[in-house]
Known about the structure:
The protein is mainly α. The chain contains eleven helices and no strands. α2 packs across α5 (about 75-90) and α10 (about 150-160) runs antiparallel to α11.
Amino acid sequence: MIVALLTTLGQVIISALAGYAFARLNFKYKNFWFFVILVTMMVPPQVNIIPLFFLMRELHLVNTFPALILPGLFGGFGVFLMRQYFLSLPKDLEEAAKIDGCNIFQTFFKIGLPLALPAVVTLTIFTFVTTWNSFMWPLIITNSESMRTLPVGLAIFKGNFREITMWGDLLACSVICTIPVIAIFFLGKKYFLSDLLSGAIKE
């Protein structure tokens, strides 16, 4: 839960800030850097596992919470999603905020971010589910059972059976593991569905 919540919170904040910058600000090589971010979405995550492991080893972060959280703080999909949503917002609201004396950060936190709530909720759900179900990276970067996440723990729990599989205990653990994912979806379902259906009906 610690890994999933901190990773989700960090990625939502970073993606929202980066998406707003790419959508509303003008800076040098903006299109180039956005293209670089899009390229990262084309690289399979399995390719990054070995370099990330060596990097974490050099930083002495193996088998720690930072090693589980830091690689998930940035995601090209999140930046792309937030940028596209910010581009769809009317610029008149931001211009009115500037007239009222708001700076860039005030405009972002008071105007842009509240209006982008559907996109924020959508990114929160995707990031939380992806992090919660992550198996390969927690398995590689941790070497103690106390640091391993639930999917890895569930696999270890099943592997502890010798002659007979205790299906009752195994399925009970599986149900417990799915409860947070179902809960967060139902909490954000209203905004998540409204975001998916936006633009589907022409007024």
